[in-house]
Amino acid sequence: AQSVSQHNHHVILSEAASLELGCNYSYGGTVNLFWYVQYPGQHLQLLLKYFSGDPLVKGIKGFEAEFIKSKFSFNLRKPSVQWSDTAEYFCAVNLYNTDKLIFGTGTRLQVFP
Amino acid sequence: DVKVTQSSRYLVKRTGEKVFLECVQDMDHENMFWYRQDPGLGLRLIYFSYDVKMKEKGDIPEGYSVSREKKERFSLILESASTNQTSMYLCASSSTGAGTYEQYFGPGTRLTVT
Lengths: 113, 114
Prior knowledge:
By secondary structure, chain A is mainly β. Chain A has no helices and twelve strands. In chain A, the strands form three sheets. In chain A, strands 2, 5, 6, 10, 11 and 12 form a six-stranded mixed β-sheet that branches. A four-stranded antiparallel β-sheet of chain A has the order 3-9-8-7, with no helix packed on it. Chain B has strands at residues 4-6, 10-13, 19-25, 31-38, 42-51, 54-57, 64-70, 73-78, 87-94, 104-105, 109-113. The termini of chain B are far apart. The A-B interface holds A 6, 9, 32, 34, 36, 42-46, 49, 51, 90, 94, 99-101, 103-106 and B 4, 31, 33, 35, 40-45, 48, 50, 58, 90, 92, 94, 96, 100-103, 105-108.
C-alpha cells in the first residue's frame, strides 16, 4: 500500500535556525505533493504544493520544498525559522488521477525565542 | 475564501450514544472527506464522498457511517460511540474540476467519549 513517511516526529529549534523536515513516499507512479501546516488551535492549511515543472517549490511564509523523484522525497525547508512557525507540519501525497490524499504522521515543530 | 464549517468544536458523549458530526462547505465542491487525527498517527481517512449520495470507505471505516444528502453537507455518524473513538475529527472538501486536488479543512471537532 502507498504510504508517506515523516521521520522527524518532534523538532525543537531556536529562532533563526535553519529547518529541514523530511518526507518520503512509496509510490512509483506520478504523484502530486503537498505540505500542510496546523498552527496551534487553527485548522489545517496548505503551505505549498508540487504538481509538475520546477522541482523547487516556494510556498507561503518563506517555506520551500524540493521534489527529488529518484529519492521519492519532498523535504520542506526554511532558512531561518521564527517563533510563529511553531506548528505541526504534514506531508501529503495525491496519487495521479485520484482525489484522495495520503498523509504522513506529522512533525511537531517548536521554535524557541 | 473557501469555508468549511463543522457543527461543534468540542463534544462530550457517553459510551453507546449515537453521535452526529456535521460538515458544511460553501464552495460547491464535489468531494468531501472525513478524517480522524490522533497524535503520532497523523490524519487517517474514514470515509469520503465524491457526489451526493455517493460514498467510499477510507482506511478506517469500522464503527462509522456517513450521509451526503446535499452537495454542501457531509455527516459522520458514530452508531454506538466507544472510548476508542475519542479523537479529533476533521472534515475537508475539494474540487475535482479544479484539477488541483487541494483539500480545504474545517476547524475540527474534538470528540471525547466517556
